[in-house]
Amino acid sequence: MRRLEAPPFPCLSNPSALESLNRLLAIHSTLALSQVSSATRCTSSQAFGLLLYLEGKGIIESRMLVFHVLDETDPPVPIMGRSLLNGPPKIPFTCERCDRTVEDPNEIHIEYEFKILYPTELIGQRQ
Ligand SMILES: [Zn+2]
């Protein structure tokens, strides 16, 4: 178990937010943005910043999951997974699942997935 000082995000100053985040890190292998923001009560953009901070520390790895909104597979299956560094796919491209050409950015839906690489506990900052 790695221990790391929590970054100075205002939404983590509440000890229960940190405790909830540590619980998520302990029981999951991947995290979604919505899980982190609802557990910590951080906004989505704060939670995103927090997860990218943890990626910078080598604790998690982020991926962009691309869904074709015209695909009716239930539950939805991503048509590709990409590094955030590569950004979204260039349009137009051919969807591998349905062979249709994706020409409109509104035809894709992007979600982020954060894979936990190392069990880690965040330690609160002492003022
Ligand atoms: Zn498709």
Mean pLDDT: 92
Question: How many domains?
Answer: 1
Strand order of the largest sheet: 2-7-3-4
DSSP E strands, number: 8
The CATH class, by name, is Mainly Alpha
Strand content: 25-35%
CATH topology: Arc Repressor Mutant, subunit A
> In terms of structural class, how would the helical and strand content be classed?
alpha+beta
Instruction: Give me the strand/helix succession.
Output: EHEHHEEEEEE
Query: What is the approximate shape?
Result: elongated
Instruction: Give the low-confidence spans.
Output: none
What this model shows, in words?
The protein has 127 residues and is of the alpha+beta class. It has a single domain (2-123), classed as Arc Repressor Mutant, subunit A (Orthogonal Bundle), CATH 1.10.10. The protein has three helices and eight strands. The protein has helices at 15-27, 33-40, 44-56, and strands spanning 2-5, 30-32, 60-68, 80-82, 93-94, 101-102, 108-116, 120-123. The strands form three sheets. The protein has a four-stranded antiparallel β-sheet. Helix 1 runs antiparallel to helix 2 and helix 2 crosses helix 3. It is elongated and about 55 Å long. The structure holds zinc ion (ZN). Zinc ion (ZN) binds next to loops.
Summary of the model, kept short:
The chain is of the alpha+beta class and 127 residues long. It has helices spanning 15-27, 33-40, 44-56, and strands spanning 2-5, 30-32, 60-68, 80-82, 93-94, 101-102, 108-116, 120-123. A hairpin with a 6-residue loop joins strand 5 (93-94) and strand 6.
